[in-house]
Specification:
Largest sheet: none
CATH class of the largest domain: Mainly Alpha
Number of helices: 9
Radius of gyration: 20 Å
Strand content: under 5%
Shape: globular
Distance between the termini: 29 Å
Order of helices and strands: HHHHHHHHH
Oligomer: single chain
Number of domains: 2
Low-confidence stretches: none
CATH superfamily of the largest domain: MFS general substrate transporter like domains
Structural class: mainly alpha
Number of strands: 0
CATH topology of the largest domain: Growth Hormone, Chain: A
C-alpha cells in the first residue's frame, strides 16, 4: 500500500509512466494479499458496500479540491495582485479562523439536523465560494478573501458531517478500519490532486478564454481552473444525493 501511494504521487508530479506501471502492479499484489490474508490490513468486504465506495470518492474529490485551492490562491494573489507573503497571509487568515469557529457549530448542527443536511450545506457553500473566487479574479482582493471564508466554513461542515455519514453506513465491526481507510484516502487526495493542479498550471493547459466573466488574459488560467474545481464539487454533490438521498435512507437504516 505504501508503494502504491508513493509511486502514485511520483507519477502525478513527474509524469513518468513507469511509476504508473509500478502503481498497477503494487495495487494488484495488495488486492490479492488482502483477499487471501486471514486478518487483512483492509477488509475486501468494505468495498462491496456501494455507499462506502461512493463516500470514498466524494471524500477524495472534495478534500483534494479544497487542498488544491489552498495551493492555487496564494500563487494567484502573488501573480495577479502582486501581494507579498504577509498580505497573502492576511487575506487567508480569516478563512482559517472561521474553520476553527464553525467546526463546533458543524458538530452541533449534525446532531440536531442530521449529517445529510450538513453535508449538502457544506458542499453548497464550497461550490458557491469557488464560483465567487473564479468570477472575482482581478476585482477587489477582499472579494477573494470573503469567498475563502465561505469555503473554509463549508469544508468544516462537510468534513464533520461526511465522516458521520460514513460511520452510519458501516457495520460496527468495520467502523475502525473503514474510517481509517477513509481518512487515509482523503489525506492522499490532497497530495495527488494538488500535484495534478500544479501540472496544469505549469503547462498552462487552461490559459485560454473559457470563464464568461474573465476578460484579463493573465487571469484565464486561475479563473478556469477554479471554475473546473467548482464543477467537481457540484458533481460530488450530485453523487452524494444519488448515493445518500431519500431512496437510500432505508438501506442506511438496515446497515446500521
Amino acid at each position: 500500500m505504501g508503494i502504491v501511494i508513493s509511486t502514485l504521487i511520483l507519477f502525478t508530479t513527474e509524469g513518468n509512466w513507469i511509476y504508473l506501471g509500478i502503481v498497477l502492479i503494487a495495487l494488484t499484489l495488495f488486492i490479492v494479499h488482502i483477499r487471501r490474508a486471514k486478518e487483512p490490513f483492509v477488509e475486501p468486504a468494505l468495498f462491496t458496500n456501494s455507499l462506502y465506495r461512493n463516500g470514498l470518492i466524494i471524500g477524495f474529490l472534495i478534500f483534494g479540491t479544497v487542498m488544491s485551492v489552498m495551493f492555487v490562491i496564494p500563487l494567484m494573489l502573488s501573480n495577479i495582485y502582486g501581494l507579498d507573503t504577509e498580505h497573502i497571509g492576511l487575506i487567508m487568515f480569516p478563512g482559517a479562523i472561521s474553520a476553527v469557529v464553525f467546526g463546533k457549530i458543524a458538530g452541533n448542527m449534525t446532531v440536531k439536523r442530521g449529517s445529510h443536511y450538513v453535508v449538502y450545506l457544506g458542499l453548497i457553500l464550497i461550490a458557491a465560494s469557488l464560483l465567487l473566487q473564479s468570477s472575482a479574479i482581478g476585482l477587489w482582493v477582499w472579494y477573494i478573501g470573503t469567498a475563502l471564508i465561505l469555503m473554509y466554513i463549508g469544508f468544516s461542515f462537510m468534513q464533520t458531517a461526511l465522516t458521520e455519514s460514513i460511520t452510519q453506513i458501516l457495520p460496527v465491526h468495520q467502523i475502525g478500519v473503514g474510517m481509517g481507510f477513509f481518512n487515509m484516502t482523503s489525506t492522499i487526495s490532497g497530495a495527488v490532486v494538488t500535484a495534478l493542479v500544479a501540472k496544469v498550471m505549469e503547462k498552462e493547459l487552461l490559459a485560454f478564454p473559457l470563464h464568461p466573466l474573465i476578460s484579463d488574459s493573465h487571469a484565464y488560467l486561475y479563473g478556469n481552473l477554479i471554475l473546473i474545481l467548482c464543477l467537481v464539487v457540484i458533481a460530488s454533490t450530485l453523487l452524494y444525493f444519488a448515493s445518500f438521498g431519500k431512496k437510500n435512507q432505508q438501506l442506511v437504516k438496515e446497515l446500521v
